[in-house]
Description:
Helix 1 (about 5-20) packs antiparallel against helix 11 (about 370-380), helix 2 (about 65-80) packs across helix 6 and helix 2 (about 65-80) crosses helix 7 (about 190-200). The protein has 11 helices and 15 strands. About 30% of the residues lie in helices and about 20% in strands. It is an alpha+beta fold. An 8-stranded antiparallel sheet has the order 3-2-1-14-13-12-11-10, with helices on both faces. Strands 6-5-15 form a 3-stranded mixed sheet. It has a two-stranded antiparallel sheet with strand order 4-9. Strand 7 and strand 8 (about 240-245) form a beta hairpin. It has 2 domains: about 5-60 and about 210-240 and about 270-380, 3-Layer(aba) Sandwich (Beta-lactamase); about 70-195, Beta-lactamase (3-Layer(aba) Sandwich). The protein has helices at about 5-20, 65-80, 110-115, 130-135, 145-155, 170-185, 190-200, 270-280, 290-295, 365-370, 370-380, and strands spanning about 25-30, 35-45, 50, 60, 220, 225-230, 235-240, 240-245, 265-270, 310-315, 320, 335-340, 345-350, 355-360, 360-365.
Amino acid sequence: MQFSSMTTRLDGVLRQAIAQNRIVGAVALVSHDGELVYHSAAGQADREAGTPMREDSIFRLASVTKPLVSAAVMRLVEEGLLALDAPVTRYLPAFRPRMADGSEPAITIHQLLTHTSGLGYRFLMPEGSDYHRFDISDGLDQPGLGIDENLSRLASAALLFAPGERWSYSLAIDVLGALVEKVEGRTLGEIVRDRVTGPLGLSDTGFQVADVSRLVKPYADGVPAPVPMTDGMAVRLDIPSFEGWVRFAPSRILNPASYHSGGAGMVGTAADILRFLEVIRTGGAPLLKPETLQKMTHDQVGVQAQAQGPGWGFGYGWAVLSDASQSDSPQGQGSLQWGGVYGHYWFVDPINKLSVVSLTNTAFEGMSGGFPFAIRDAVYGHSTA
């Protein structure tokens, strides 16, 4: 891999996306075999104020939260405080969602981790669904909402299918967040800090903003340019398997009464996320035992997930490229990948010893537009054209 030419390619991707008004700003980092081979902050953190993007800019992470929380959950499994095959009601007795016929199947922690629980996300549900009728939060909106209230609303909605029957992206990690809070008797933020971010020195990543002056302003896709995101804004997401209106409230992270959403509630920097991903790529130490990481990085779901297209399954916290021969991606077998609706993308390629983080302040171009795939292909010098 020629890193000088990769730098030229990545610089060009960033420059073009900003010039074409597809993103407002971004931080991109690439590590190869433990060495930082590319780092760049491009564009603006706040376009209206003229604030340039910095490499230590802080982003609302959205679903980039999920891998961090999943790792914390697996730490509790290692410690014997949780069991993967245990029913959720062992820890959350009041959380008893039912099927449409009124039956009450058991949901396990494994099913929550793999999004096979029968739960859903409001943004993926049609108007008029239980998720809309009960005003269920996706962990991105409704500043000040408490976890007990949101779980009560969620438990009132009919399960989409019998647990274990199939895969559906969901609020499951928010349920896990509430569950570990009950087990430990303290906030999810404290649990994640003590078991994940603290040991790794990720001082800018958590459920509160370490330095508000570095918090980027979020934007939504717009014509001719992205538009500032405001509380209550609903943005249309239209990609295969993920279609619906995502409701945002950027002020949520600044309201201390907002529940700690295990699926979407953290903020952080690109460098912190890269540090975490490198720990995952290199075997899990000092966070996780090798056998724990093997479970997390194994495709637990199979082809029914195809969360990132053909060849992709799902593990604990991320999509897994379990059959690279079925994918048009240049990534190696066993690659891990996911993103976040505020405009983020990351992947780990263990075969090619790569960890890549791209955080933007533009939804959804930075997550599911042409930008993240251009980043990926520039890293490999690959073209899908």
